[in-house]
Design goal:
The chain has 389 residues and is α+β, with helices and mostly antiparallel strands. The chain is built from 10 helices and 14 strands. It has 3 domains: 72 residues, 2-Layer Sandwich (TATA-Binding Protein); 97 residues, no CATH class; 153 residues, Ribonuclease H-like superfamily/Ribonuclease H (Nucleotidyltransferase, domain 5).
Length: 389
């Protein structure tokens, strides 16, 4: 470290200080603190899962204690109050930490409690983003993108400030943690980071205008049955630039969405069945990961997960033991899903396109259908008012 102001030696100004340990404020300090913290937790009886290296669980006679760690921010919860207080006391003795009480704000996410459950939103984050982009006084719109519209790679003139474009789009990516309604729109604008056009930035501003009208919207979570279900969908050859398909998936625990994704597939699919099957395989892998996580959290699942798909050919392919010539190039995905269906670890069911919750994650929709799927994803306005910085 260079000699700090006020402590520098003029006669040895060319020398630097050798650090015997990391100091707060330096780049390596959070990582060093995190490493020490994670080594201390096993001494308190915590275990971590390979499904999520930042999640720790301690089992006691009266229940469990769950600790979630992100660098130096900690969430502690569980159903054993006495054990939780013991953990907090032990951590306070070992580290210089502050107990902030009930959870209200974590990593830019606001958490509010209602009579029906929890509401997660990022209202303050949206306000800061709108202020940064000077869109706070803009006119709002009903959807984050035009219905069934796709962006072209070379559409118009290049945007003159690509740094601003990348900064705003990067900020929008973090916002999808509590706003699955903008996941597809953000996925579209993320594909033009290298050379954005004016039309692409116009699409970004439409997302911001939509957020302007839905600042206080967030996810609502309430008690319900512990049934794991998922919706899988694909927009076959929807990207006009390379004709790749878009995978959309939404995973629910009961009526509560716990995982979602809108992602362009890595290869071109030769048919809608193939595109849907690739989406089915990706969703199955996500369900496997969530099942492992729930087992670690001691959440019992009384029945296998249900995976809904709106393509009958794809469902038939998952049940058919015959390997057809036309599907041999996707045989890994075929066997991955078929094996779970055969072992009754996964239940496939047909759902109509109108009730396909993942449809909002694969394409732009008209306003009435878009609002319907927002309701399906438990998105609604929150009365939470955040105070402070």
């Amino acid at each position: 470290m260079t000699q700090p102001p006020g402590f520098d030696d003029v006669t040895t100004s060319h020398l630097v200080c050798k650090l015997h340990k990391s100091l707060y404020g330096l780049k390596q300090a959070p990582r060093a603190w995190n490493d020490r913290f994670t080594k201390f937790l096993p001494l308190l009886g915590f275990q971590h899962t390979y499904s999520d290296s930042s999640l720790f669980v301690k089992t006691v006679d009266s229940g469990i204690v769950i600790l979630l760690l992100y660098v130096d921010d900690i969430i502690i919860t569980g159903n054993a109050d006495a054990a939780m207080q013991q953990v907090i006391s032990a951590l306070t003795k070992e580290f210089d930490i502050k107990d902030l009480g009930d959870l209200h704000f974590f990593m830019g996410i606001q958490i509010s409690r209602t009579a029906h459950g929890l509401c997660l939103s990022q209202s303050k984050y949206i306000l800061d983003l709108l202020t940064k982009t000077e869109m706070l006084e803009s006119k709002s719109c009903e959807t984050p993108c035009l219905p069934y519209n796709r962006l072209l790679k070379d559409d118009g003139a290049p945007y003159t400030n690509p740094t601003l474009y990348r900064s705003v789009v990067g900020a929008l990516q973090y916002l999808t943690f509590t706003r699955p309604d903008i996941a597809f729109s953000v996925n579209q604008v993320c594909q033009f980071m290298q050379q954005p056009m004016i039309a692409h930035f116009t699409a970004v501003k439409r997302i911001l205008r939509y957020l302007k009208g839905t600042i206080h919207h967030g996810l609502t979570y309430s008690q319900g049955p512990l049934q794991l279900k998922a919706f899988s969908d694909a927009d076959w050859a929807g990207d006009p630039n390379d004709r790749r398909s878009t995978t959309g998936m939404a995973v629910f625990l009961g009526n509560n969405p716990i995982s979602w994704s809108s992602k362009k597939q890595l290869t071109v699919s030769r048919s809608s069945t193939e595109a849907e099957y690739r989406a089915l395989s990706s969703t199955s892998a996500e369900l496997d990961w969530i099942k492992q996580l729930l087992v670690f959290l001691q959440v019992p699942l009384t029945s296998p997960p249900v995976l809904f798909c709106d393509n009958l050919s794809t469902i038939a392919l998952a049940f058919n033991p015959v390997q057809h010539q036309r599907t041999k190039h996707i045989e890994v995905d075929v066997h991955f899903v078929r094996e779970r269906v055969a072992k009754k670890q996964l239940s496939l069911q047909f759902v109509s396109s109108k009730e396909q919750f993942a449809d909002i994650l694969t394409k732009g929709l008209s306003s009435p259908l878009f609002r319907t799927h927002c309701t399906n994803l438990m998105l609604r306005a929150s009365n939470h008012v955040f105070a402070g910085g």
